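seq as requested:
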Amino acid sequence: MKPETYKALLKDLQKLQKTLVASQIEAVRRDPTLTARMGRLHAEAEVGGRVDDFVATAARNSTVLFLLRSVFVRVLEDLGILSLKRIRDEWGFAAFREVAPAVGLRGYFAFVFRDLAVDFPALFGSGEDELPLPNEDGCRALWNIWHHPNRDGERYLWNGDGFESRFLGDLYQDLDADIRKRYALKQTPRFIEEYILDHTLTPSVAEFDPAKLHAAGQRFRVLDPTCGSGHFLIGAFHRLADYWRDRHGLGEYEARERALEGVWGCDINPHAVEIANFRLILEVVARTGVKDLERLAELKLNLRAMDSLIPWERAAKQGDLFPAKDRLDAYATPKQRRDNAAFLARDFHVVVGNPPYIQPKDVRKRDDYRVFWPDSAAGKYALSAPFAERMFVLGAPGAFVGQITANSFMKRAFGKKLISTALSRCELTGVIDTSGTYIPGHGTPTVILFGRHQKSSGAQVWAILGKRGEPKKPSDPARGLVWSAIATTPERHTSDESPFVTSALVSAEEFRKHPWSLGGGEAAAIKAAIEETTQRLRDVATSVGNLTKMIQDDVYFGFDPSVARDPRKSMIGLLEGEFVRDWSIERANPVIYPYEHGERTALALDAGSPAYHHLWRYREILWGRLGVGFKTVRDRGLRFYEYPFYAPGTTRGLGICFAFVSTHNHFVLDRGGKLFKQSAPVIKLPATATLNDHLDLLGLLNTSTLAFWMRQVFYPKGGDKKGDGGRSSAEEWSDRLEFDCTKLKQAPIATRDREARVALASALDACLLRSLPERRGLPSRSERTSMQLAIDFFSKRIA
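struct tokens:
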């Protein structure tokens, strides 16, 4: 089947799937028994949310599996594995009707799947959380897809053009966007998979020698604990089969058996594991030519559906001494826990993967992961952080580890403990910045980590540091300019010749400190020179942040005009980050302010006032807002209309505010009288600080020097994406940064040249004031003189 035909099939199945989902949801609503069953499953799942949302998810998942199973059957038929054609030819259904004339296509599909589940239970067996098959019309529509030409006059056949099993993973990933997001489905491109296996499996085979292990009664194993639909497993299978065939003279089928002994994978999504199973079977058929159904059904595949982030094997080894045993025992049955522990307790000589980048959605698991992995699951962590530690822990002593993962841990606060503690216990051997690489479908900036499960034995880590991203979307991502520069760089080779990357040997100590900076060229040297000054922002500022959060913002913003006219209420401006641009404050929007101005004392609003009447309508949701100490407004003894987070000090005196997310450093002098939302933090200096002190700091924070430093330290939120989610900004300037208050406190603050800097900042501030509507006009003579003196001073310094 040609790539164009694959795309046409995907579109036809996507269109049908949307129709089937709607009919499935309606079927649940009409059937009281099915409704009650789904309600029970929702309660047992403890996922929260509405039952209707749970049903919708089940409908999406069930219809995707229904369509995929029909694809499985068609592939088995066209590859000659099924001698009797169940779906491809009309005679199968005709024969079925002779036996059961009153049963339609819906019953026939159910019969086909049950029959094949005898030999392939993982592929065709239905789960308890699945809905019954779609109605007769839906099954007829699917039958027509397989039996009638598409709009281009082509039939969907796997004859003559070969079969690419990766399509199955793509199909599962792309059929339903909601399922894709829920399970973080994202296939690793082949060029990434091959690069990681080149730097892990290849040296591991050379060091551990699978043949010697086999002779000693042991097994060489590769594990992907986040295997998904099996991309890494397929690559590892072929490499190991080639090893046994080419280097030890085994026949194709015997080499296949030895290779499968060494390929292990697991995933939290059982349906993805089903696809991985199916793909491995098809790869065996492709290598050996064996199509006998009974022999294929006897294949021993080492794949398992489980949450590999739960340390099953630790509980089995430590028993009651395992500190989180009570939490772990809440998952699965005792037998499943034992089987999961036995699966992961083996020696794995290579651990590779592409873990999910999302934050945990299950609240209970989110908290349990923090207990299981206290050195990596910290703060508002993404799953990529504990998985970064988990992959090292799963390896045998000396195991080779490789993963492509989100780079958010490098600069965000939740990654600090991972870097300083968890990763410091292992040996990092390579850090590859792939944030500038165009990776199809990966909208999150990534990094590739290589290492070994052993204490660090080297003083240096090989790193490929980024200089710039792809200038445009490449026609072939594997031949993109940035990726080509990475892929062609020999390991531990140092070079700065490429315009896209720098290959360097970096002190291992640099990768034990948070945040990481992976800038290529002279970026590291320039950053180090900037940081030579000993003074930091934390030394001159009393606080950075000072946020006011209302949680239910619409209640305080969206008030009736009568509230604004009420003389008994208080109003104040609340500044949001989107209005801090071009070194000025565009506006602060008025909100209800139920406090004495600049104080923590709440106003006793009159119950008859319009403001109180407006707020009273939302009292229940206002009572329930979580604030300081994760306590609700009610539990803290506050009035229902008070703010959960309130910083009254920002209403008094001068401050320097900035946007939390912005392309550049837009720091603005604020003269008080307003509150600041979390998207617009504010810096407060000591009460004794003068206007000149503020202008001096303001001038430094807005320099291009600190702008460069911030780009090395702050987390890149990304810019305008191109294509199907690849990280390739249209313009480099559009890459936005997250101006993290914690990291901003580390900003180096120069003390020299203060007089000239203040003179220039004062003149610019005067110009800004003069541009206001009430003071519009040209700068005064003294202002122009101050500005010129400052410009002359800096011009001489530059010369």
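DSSP finds 34 helices and 21 strands in the chain.
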